[in-house]
Amino acid sequence: MSTWKTYIVTMIRSEVMEIEIKARNLGEAETKALNKSDEAEPHFWGEPEIESINEKIS
User: Fold this and answer.
1) CA 58, CA 56: separation in Å to the nearest integer?
2) Of 9, 42, 44, 58, which one has the greatest count of Cβ atoms within 10 A?
3) CA-to-CA dists, residue 49 to 1, 15, 37, angstroms
């Protein structure tokens, strides 16, 4: 392969590796975010909460 072709292939491989690293980091960040959302306590507005408010009022 000529020098310029080698250079182009090297640059493309470098770009691909950077994209793979960014994709891996994004995947890890997404996993962490999903884990944190699983740990968060769900908050539902509904009858149990309304009942507790009614108890406080009376």
Assistant:
1) 6
2) 9
3) 73, 54, 22
Longest dimension (CA), the chain: 87
What is the structure's pLDDT at 21? 94
Distances (CA, A) of 18 to 9, 13, 24: 14, 9, 10
pLDDT tens for 5-32 read 999 999 999 999 999 999 999 999 888 8
> Per the structure block, which two tokens stand in for 13?
């491989």
Q: Do the beta carbons of residue 24 and residue 31 sit within 8 Å?
A: no
Domain boundaries, the chain: 3-57
